[in-house]
Amino acid sequence: MARIGIKNLVKEFGSFTAVKGINLEINDGEFLIMVGPSGCGKTTTLNMISGLVMPSSGEISIGENDVTHTEPGERGLGMVFQDLALFPHMSVFENIAFGLRVKNTSEQEVKDRVQQAAEAMHIEQLLSKRPGQCSGGEAQRVALARTIVTNPSVYLMDEPLSSLDAKLRIDMRTELKGLHERLSGTFVYVTHDQAEAMTMADRIVVMNGGEIEQLGGPLDIYRKPATRFVAGFFGMPTMNFLDGEIAAVDGAPMFVTDGIKAPLEGDLPANLSGRKATLGVRSEHVLATEAENGGKVSLIEPLGDATLVYFDYGGPTRLVSKVDPDRLFAPGDDLTFAFDANNCHLFDADNGARLN
Amino acid sequence: MSNAHSKTQAATPAGQKDRRRDHMPLVRHAILIGWALIIMFPIFWMLQTSFKDSGEWVTWPPNWLPQDPTLKNYQQIFTFDVSGSGVAREATDQPFSIWGSLRDSLIICTLSSLIALFMGTFLAYSISRFNVGGKKFRHMVLLVRMIPPIVIAIPLLMYYAVLIPFATEAVFGARISLFDTRIGMSILYLTVTLPFVIWMMLSFVDEVPYTLEHAARIMGAGRMYTLRKVVLPLVASGMVVTFLFVFILNWAEFLLALTLTHPDVSTLPVLLNKFQSASEGRLYGPQAAIGTVITIPVVILGIAIQKHLVKGFSFGMLRR
Ligand SMILES: Nc1ncnc2c1ncn2[C@@H]1O[C@H](COP(=O)(O)OP(=O)(O)OP(=O)(O)O)[C@@H](O)[C@H]1O
Ligand SMILES: [Mg+2]
User: Fold this and answer.
1) Rounded distance between C-alpha atoms, residue B119 and residue A258, angstroms
2) Cβ(A11) to ligand 1 under 6 A?
């Protein structure tokens, strides 16, 4: 059992509070991804779980045990670091064997288990090399092999893929997901790449400024972002945001700004009328159809399976719509557009909290 | 940083250097050879003087090579049995050979350098990792070295020859004197060179990324295990370089040794200075022979650890 419980976790560095009282329950065998912008406290939180950083206050438990004051080496964890932290003066074999040797494992068992781990990561041919002689992807596998060899029940990973090039990074995502299924351990994974989080996670924790903004499944977070920050963080291209006001036209709620009127659907709280708000719409929910709102195309980005059309609508920002690649637009063209009323996100203009 | 990336980065400056080298090999080599000659000349002069007999030491115009090469100088310093060979030259008042000094120097320098290396490495580690002594301490480590040795020589003599013997006699009833002892000189050299060791080892220890230590710690390794298996192997080359540096400092130290020893202990530089006589002045021949003998162990040491020298001086060795 490797359920991880985090209660009121706080970390202060001098007068600066990096983590401001986090509560989190991580389920046994879960692939949990912490994501957020640089400096939001992801690494600090992860290092408190690992024991490398002592919390200023709060509690951490792994399984049934309170480990808040337990040495890192006694928490039953494996960790993959951002810079991999392979020992440059040891062979790949010795790197993988390190955790076993610390525990005085017999030589035969060390051999067998290193061999198994190497096979699992497909790096048998590297065992006699030095880490410096491995490619980035190979070194990544060595780091993973070194982690799995001790059979930890919890795997902590701090941006392990950030040193790889784009293609390899995407391949490794699939591999990590497969590894998670095979190992049946609890994965806590830190990244600032929202796409990485979306593709791999069972659940995502979105952090910002030392606090949790939202916790949920990838699709929940994508479809129902709890704050404006989360909405803007997930999805490529970034969600369109318009500042305006909620009005009731003929009894139906409507979002109004700079000559744009967007009808709103779903159950809205009753008292919203007249309130300042930010409307968020993803590019795929900006429909370039016959409608009463008009704009002028300024930029086209063909993606292959879709085309991004950036256009001015008369407001301070530019909007982007994702259209079928067969529809041909050119800069300067006029277009009319509407928002998919079922997929409009409303956020409080002041604190960014979700309104609908 | 991805591997491919670092390779391309490394390729460009190297390529540029190659091109520059193609342009002016002559100038470059002329300058280097000229400089090498300037550096090597005193060594050459010492070497050839060591094979000259007294008549040739200070001739004018100088003899660039010994006219009549002789081993008398070496004979004199190694045996001081000069009766048969006819090299009856007095050195100060007493006859002495180099053996005693060689032993004194070797024991004092090896002992003090090794202990300084050991202590300094661990001190550097604690300063690097735990900011022992405060954040500014690393910049003040060398401060002690700013004092000219001549300033502390006499106060030290007071301690070694008077205060410590007096105090130990008063407290323990047994007189312990550090003056004119190998242990006294070793302690002194240890104290004097420790700042250098700390300062040099700091730059090597700082180079070891502490995620390596974190990784080891998570895998259950204790602090000492991590030091032994991870940190020390990674700074080993640095330790070798530091040892050599400090050993040479001690090996060539003159002033403090001159002040704090006599007559029992005598290091090589002090011995060298003793080779002068009332009638003939400085005995340049034997002095050059001693100089040569002093230089040889250092050169051998340097060659033996050449591999480490290259590694140790190329900071940034840990980048993948
Ligand atoms: N040892 C420390 N001393 C002082 N401040 C620190 C320390 N470690 C982290 N911080 C601060 O705490 C904040 C959170 O740091 P943390 O490393 O957790 O960020 P992060 O979310 O992992 O960011 P990134 O995506 O850049 O890795 C940062 O503002 C950082 O400057
Ligand atoms: Mg981080």
Assistant:
1) 73
2) no
Secondary structure E strands in A53-113:
57-62, 65-66, 77-80
Distance CA B257, CA B263 (A): 11
From the number of C-beta atoms within 10 Å of its C-beta (0-12, 13-18, 19+), residue B115 rates as: middle
| Residue ranges of domains in chain B | 2-49, 96-313
Give the chain B residue nearest A169 (alpha carbons): B2
Q: For residue A150, what is the DSSP state?
A: T
Closest Cα in chain A to B220? A73
* One pLDDT digit (tens) per residue for chain A, 356 residues: 689 999 999 999 999 999 999 999 999 999 999 999 999 999 999 999 999 999 999 999 999 899 999 999 999 999 999 889 999 999 999 999 999 999 999 999 999 999 999 999 999 999 999 999 999 889 999 999 999 999 999 999 999 998 888 888 899 999 999 999 998 899 999 998 999 999 999 999 999 999 999 999 999 999 999 999 999 999 989 999 999 988 887 777 888 887 788 888 877 777 777 888 999 999 999 998 888 888 999 999 999 999 999 999 888 889 999 999 998 899 999 999 999 988 999 999 888 899 88
**What domains are there in chain A, each with its CATH number?**
4-232 (3.40.50.300), 241-348 (2.40.50.140)
Contacts A–B by Cβ distance under 8 A: 72
Which residue type, as a one-letter code, is found at position A106? S
CATH architecture of the region B96-313: Orthogonal Bundle (1.10)
First-to-last alpha carbon distance for chain B, in angstroms, is 9
Q: What is the ipTM of this complex?
A: 0.85
Q: How far is CA A105 from CA A97, A101, A145, A154, B218, in A?
A: 9, 6, 17, 21, 17
Q: Which of B212, B221, B318 sits opposite A102 (nearest CB)?
A: B221
Q: Is the CB of A47 under 6 A from ligand 1?
A: no
Query: Measured between CA atoms, how close is A202 to chain B, in angstroms?
Result: 25
Residues with C-beta atoms within 5 A of ion ligand 2: A 43
